[in-house]
Design brief:
The complex is a heterodimer of chains A (about 475) and B (about 675).
Chain A lengths: L1 H16 L31 H17 L8 H11 L51 H13 L5 E2 L4 E2 H22 L23 H13 L10 H8 L8 H8 L16 H10 L11 H18 L7 H45 L5 H21 L8 H10 L9 E6 L5 E5 L3 H19 L10 H9 L10
Antiparallel strand pairs in A: 1-2, 3-4
Helix pairs in contact in A: 2-3, 2-5, 2-6, 3-4, 4-5, 5-6, 5-11, 5-12, 6-10, 7-8, 7-9, 9-11, 10-11, 11-12, 11-14, 12-13, 13-14
Chain B lengths: L1 H16 L7 H18 L4 H8 L2 H4 L2 H20 L6 H15 L12 H29 L1 H11 L14 H26 L7 E2 L2 E2 H8 L24 H7 L4 H4 L9 H6 L25 H32 L1 H24 L3 E6 L3 H15 L2 E6 L4 H8 L7 E5 L1 H9 L3 E2 L4 H6 L12 E13 L23 E2 L6 H14 L1 H13 L9 H9 L5 E5 H8 L4 H8 L1 E4 L10 E9 L5 H11 L2 H11 L2 E2 L8 H4 L11 H18 L2
Helix pairs in contact in B: 2-3, 6-9, 7-8, 7-9, 8-14, 16-26, 20-21, 20-28, 21-28, 22-24, 23-24
Classes of the chains: A mainly alpha (about 475), B alpha+beta (about 675).
């Protein structure tokens, strides 16, 4: 008892002395070690480097997916698999990398966390939105194989952009799924990773502390997000390319003012990037959403609550509050994915409109077709991502999958309807352009009905609603 | 209750503050100003005379006017309950907007370079014209049809006119007006947004359509008043003056059946119902059969209902009489009840007697396989359940795995059949009957699937194009001399892909690609539609030559729609390659599901499908050819010409499909 008090006191001294570790209550860092009997040297219990390493593996994999030359390339495939499946040492960070003044501290994945992969953390259920009942990782590996032999990651005949498909899908099947269906779900139960024991033997964090941190890590937002605007967080992800001056993005990200962006705590990754994008209204009119700060604040409040238990088992009341925070996070995260699906359904619709115009005029469709395929990949990826949460979306998922199809409707009216046992795409004559465009409008309506999306960027039927509203009511019985 | 009351009072007062409404305070004021000027002129400059004339108690507090006020109070309450139950204009606009995607096959933004104000102006003008024309048409109908007149009459019973007479309307008529607004606004909105995107805007003044604002501000409220204000003959050809509308309210029917228009007179002009206001005001307003109780609320609301019921009585009575006759006859009644009972018992017996059940997963439409099911059931008593889907069945079967209830798979086209074999969803079948009835080139080498009927891919040629009858082989279609004369559906459709695969089998990949590219060069239009649409295109003169499956010709030839029979009559079929390898055939077929719990029965069903009885059905139901060599080709099919078929192993077509698809992609078919 005496010993632990001394230890606790000395730990507190260290915390107070170490500038970086002083917790600003707006920042997700610096929470002290509360594990009873901890004997190690760590001064903070916050740790989510494994999740950041996976964000980096994901960004790098996306970059690799777009690097093929159109011929079968076993070397590229092996490299992609090393970022997806293996836990190889010595993997370099392919993305994000230093860009102009936006200097990034880490150059190797191992500098962030060692021995991590994506495959082990990919959604394990079957993906009903693609043929052959593949599991999440089965689907990613199928796409990796296809991407390795595609030209810059794009299959112009079947209509696939593998970089987009892989990336958007992983944002759901790894990040969203692991956070909402694991760390913020069963790991909040009383006897699963309790708070009165270390997460694993010798760890400086308790079971609940680390579970919560891992959830936060998967969201991929800078620890000091609440000191930034959504626009700042968005610009960090863009590494200055969307800033007035490129160095602005560095200034937003570099919280500890060491002149470099620490990927572990200062960078914006996929899920947070989209939340920030909607909140900052970068895709259209003023959206009025607040996903980024709502989610981040719920994570921070939850973490403060766990910290306040000081290494004791959480009471039922505390866990109930924690579950409320988790519910806020899950609901808003799901909405971000739904907003993204909505936005890309609108993009696909607009692309089809343009493609039709070009085709009718016998013009060259190549450029527009590429955009269409890219947007379709994002639509499909996000729609599948949405289906990897903890709840079974049931009919909503079925309708989404049927309306989007296994592949985009191509200008020659063909559409992938199956994948054969050798992995070849099987196509058939699809529906009409009009029908497919209508599907996009219906998808948007479905997303409004089921997820109550608010930002509604690229709304297809928005104009009809606005105009009818303006025409006023015809309810009174006026005669002539 | 409080909320309802506050909504009611809100609705009651809204029209006075809402510039979209006729009795908006501003419009009433402008009408008053005009009325004063007119009245002063009439009373030769006497202000007092004008005032007395305008605000005479005989007008504003007459029995008729008091009824107007009561109707206004009552109708607001009634409409408050009714309107929310009508289809909203947003719902109808969305429905139209969605339907337009199908009608126009997608969406093309028109005139993208036009400035926004121009589109907004066009929208405002069009909405106004459409609305005004609709008002004319509906108004005329209200006078023309007795049932409608019963309700509209209420408005015409007014004997003194004030601006509030505009609300003297029966609720049924109110609903008609509300629906009219919904239809007009939905058509304009959906149409404009569809073609012009978000540039469609309404030009408004104080939030009201600029045209209606102008109309109302120019004294529209005088239409229902005793202020005689005409525009003069010339302008009254274009705009309905207040005086013209007062003529419409004249007790003299000679006047009453004219001037139905709201704002514009052109509709009356076109419709021959225009009257000018140059002969002075009518003697009296109202109807000649007005009675002492005309202005009682009960009369106003209920009498039209009774009268309308009377109008509709005769046709309804006819039906009731027939029903009564049937039911009053004791024998007929007993027979009917007894018959129903017997039918019920019979169906229960049949259901319980069915010893076995068979579950079929079918890509073929239910009406096409029903005759086979009925025939089989009649023969064996087996109960058959069908799960029909045009796509997704293989995925479903795969997901169901060992739990799948499916016994038999039925589909069309070798490519689709092969999907099941490829995914290992079919069980091999040992059956002498099937081996005997289905030639070896029309079944799987491992006996997992079998063809049950054949369909030939043929060339349809316009009767008018004598020269095109020179086509003898598929290969001829690539000849440059047919440039701009061929129609086909998209290449990726399984029927075309199978045809390309057969050419690869016969001539090799390069020759097949050269051929496909030649056919594309000869197309009259972008590949589109289904096989039927190609025959239609020939009929319409779009092209002279088309590649289709033979049975579509039969379906068109015997279609219930006369126009489709005309399409078929415009063409003749050619069975290609009769001097060589024969015409390419595809199949409909099926197999036994791998996890079927009822394999023996499933095999028995497949065997039945190859028997003479079923093989004949393929011909009569769908104009397909029998696979069983012992069964004769039906006479109808023989009359289109006999042919020899390409006997390549049909399984090869499935194997060659990926190569065929690549050719199709490369040539842009």
């Amino acid at each position: 008892m005496h010993k632990s008090t001394t230890l606790g006191a000395s730990a507190l001294t260290i915390v107070l002395l170490s500038g970086a570790a002083i917790a600003d209550d707006m920042v997700y860092s610096g929470f002290p070690v509360t594990v009873n009997g901890y004997t190690g040297k760590k001064t903070t219990s916050v740790s989510y480097t494994g999740q950041i390493a996976r964000h980096v593996l994901h960004d790098s994999l996306k970059k690799l997916a777009n690097s093929g030359n159109g011929k079968p390339n076993p070397e590229l495939k092996a490299k992609m698999l090393s970022y997806y499946s293996t836990k190889d040492k010595g993997r370099m960070v392919i993305a994000p990398k230093t860009k102009g003044p936006f200097a990034i501290k880490q150059t190797g994945v191992d500098d962030i966390s060692k021995g991590k992969n994506l495959e082990g953390k990919t959604y394990k259920g079957t993906i009903t939105g693609m043929p052959n009942n593949m599991t999440g990782s089965g689907l990613v590996k199928f796409w990796i194989d296809k991407a390795s032999s595609a030209n810059k990651g794009v299959d112009m005949a079947n209509g696939y952009n593998y970089g987009q498909l892989i990336s958007k899908f992983i944002m759901g099947a790894v990040s969203y799924n692991q956070a909402v269906d694991n760390y913020l779900d069963e790991k909040l139960e009383a006897d699963n990773k309790p708070n009165n024991k270390p997460y694993k033997k010798g760890a400086p964090y308790t079971g609940k502390e680390h579970s919560w941190d891992e959830g936060f890590g998967y969201f991929g937002t800078p620890a000091h997000t609440l000191k930034l605007t959504p626009r700042n967080v968005y610009e960090i992800a863009k590494q200055g390319s969307k800033s007035k001056k490129p160095e602005d993005a560095l200034a937003y990200a570099d919280y500890n003012k060491d002149g470099k962006v620490d990927l572990k705590t200062e960078m914006t990754f996929g899920p947070a990037y989209y939340a920030a994008g909607f909140d900052a209204s970068v895709y259209g009119k003023s959206n009025g959403t607040d996903y980024l700060h709502t989610i981040t604040k719920a994570f921070l409040d939850g973490r403060k609550l766990i910290d306040s238990a000081k290494g004791k088992k959480l009471t039922d009341a505390q866990r109930a509050t924690l579950k409320d925070h988790a519910a806020t996070i899950s609901a808003n995260w799901q909405k971000v994915l739904a907003e993204a699906t909505y936005k890309y359904a609108g993009s696909v619709y607009k692309d089809l409109e343009k493609l039709k115009t070009i085709v009718e005029a016998n013009g060259d469709t190549t450029k527009q077709l590429k955009k269409y395929i890219k947007h379709w990949g994002e639509l499909k990826g996000f729609s599948l991502a949405l289906q990897t949460g903890k709840e079974n979306l049931g009919e909503t998922a079925t309708r989404l999958n049927r309306m989007i199809g296994f592949g985009p409707l191509m200008p020659n009216l063909s559409q992938v309807v199956d994948i054969d046992s050798k992995g070849n795409y099987v196509r058939d004559q699809g529906g009409s352009w009009g029908e497919y465009m209508l599907h996009m409008a219906k998808i948007q309506k479905l997303l409004i009905d089921k997820f109550d999306v608010k930002a509604r960027n690229n709304a297809i039927t928005g104009g009809v609603a606005e105009l009818t509203k303006k025409l006023g009511g015809g309810s009174s019985a006026e005669n002539d | 209750m409080e909320a309802v009351l506050s909504e009611y009072f809100g609705q009651l007062t809204d029209p006075f503050f809402n510039p979209q409404k006729r009795v908006f305070a501003g419009y009433l004021f402008s009408a008053l100003a005009i009325a004063f000027v007119v009245a002063i002129v009439h009373s030769r400059g006497s202000w007092l005379g004008a005032w007395r004339g305008l605000f005479s108690r005989d007008i504003w507090w007459s029995k008729s006017a008091r009824a107007d006020y009561l109707i206004l109070l009552t109708n607001q309450a009634v409409m408050m309950g009714v309107v929310p139950r009508l289809i909203t204009k947003l719902a109808f606009a969305m429905l139209l907007f969605e339907a337009m995607h199908i009608w126009f096959d997608g969406r093309l933004l028109l005139w993208p370079s036009a400035p926004g104000w121009m589109i907004a102006a066009a929208f405002t003008v069009l909405l106004f014209l459409l609305d005004d024309a609709a008002k004319y048409v509906v108004h005329r109908a209200l006078h023309r049809f007795p049932v409608l007149w019963c309700f509209h009459k209420v408005h015409h019973t007014a004997e003194t006119l004030t601006p509030f007479t505009v609300y003297r309307t029966h609720p049924v008529e109110g609903v008609i007006f509300a629906l009219r607004t919904v239809v007009v606004q939905a058509i304009a909105t959906a149409g404009f947004i569809f073609f012009f995107g978000d540039r469609a805007e309404l030009v408004t003044l104080l939030g009201a359509n600029a045209f209606l604002f102008a109309f109302n501000a120019a004294g529209s409220n005088l239409r229902h008043s005793h202020v005689w204000f005409g525009y003069g003959r010339i302008l009254e050809h274009v705009l309905i003056s207040p005086a013209q509308h007062q003529l419409h309210h004249s007790v003299d029917r000679h006047h009453g059946d004219a001037n139905f228009g709201a704002v514009l007179a052109i509709w009356d002009w076109i419709g021959g119902s225009l009257q000018f206001a140059d002969n002075g005001p009518p003697e009296r307003f109202g109807l000649s059969d007005n009675r002492s109780d005309t202005h009682d609320l009960a009369t106003i609301y209920l009498k039209p209902m009774v009268e309308a019921a009377h109008c509709l009585y005769r046709p309804i009575k006819k039906g009731i009489v027939m029903m009564n006759a049937l039911l009053s006859n004791g024998f007929a009644r007993r027979t009917a009840i007894g018959g129903l009972g017997a039918l019920l018992c019979l169906s229960i017996m049949v259901v319980s007697a069915a010893a076995t059940e068979l579950n079929i997963y079918s890509h073929r439409q239910p009406f096409l396989i029903k005759p086979f099911i009925d025939a089989y059931k009649a023969k064996t008593g087996t109960e058959i359940n069908i799960v029909y889907a045009s796509k997704g069945l293989a995925q479903r079967l795969q997901a169901e795995g060992g739990r799948s209830p499916a016994d038999v798979i039925l589909t069309v086209d070798i490519a689709r059949l092969y999907v099941y074999a490829d995914k290992k969803l079919l069980a091999p079948v040992e059956s002498d009957v099937l081996s005997r009835n289905v030639p070896s080139h029309l079944r799987a080498p491992d006996n997992t699937w079998f063809a049950f009927s054949k369909r030939a891919r043929v060339v349809a040629i316009a009767n008018r194009s004598k020269d095109a009858f020179a086509i003898k082989n598929y290969e001829d279609l690539a000849d440059p001399k047919w440039r701009g004369r061929i129609c086909t559906r998209p290449g990726s459709h399984v029927y075309n892909r199978a045809l390309v695969a057969s050419l690869i089998h016969a001539k090799g990949v390069d020759a097949a690609e050269k051929w496909a590219s030649g056919v594309i060069e000869n197309l009259a239009r972008r590949p589109q539609g289904n096989d039927r649409a190609q025959v239609k295109a020939i009929y319409e003169g779009v092209c002279d030559i088309a590649i289709i499956n033979n049975y579509y010709y039969g379906k068109l030839k015997h279609s219930a729609k006369p126009v489709q029979r005309d399409w078929a009559a415009a063409v003749k079929l050619i069975f290609p390659n009769q001097d060589g390898r024969g015409a390419h055939v595809n199949i409909s077929g099926g197999g036994v599901a791998k996890h079927s719990k009822n394999k023996a029965e499933a095999v028995r069903f497949l065997e039945f499908l190859t028997s003479k009885a079923a093989q004949d059905l393929y011909g009569s139901v769908n104009y397909e050819y029998p696979v069983n060599p012992a069964v004769d080709v039906p006479r109808e099919l023989r009359s289109w010409g006999s042919f020899s078929e390409d006997k390549m192993p049909i399984a090869r077509i499935a194997k060659l499909a990926p190569k065929a698809q690549m050719i199709i992609d490369r040539v842009g078919w």
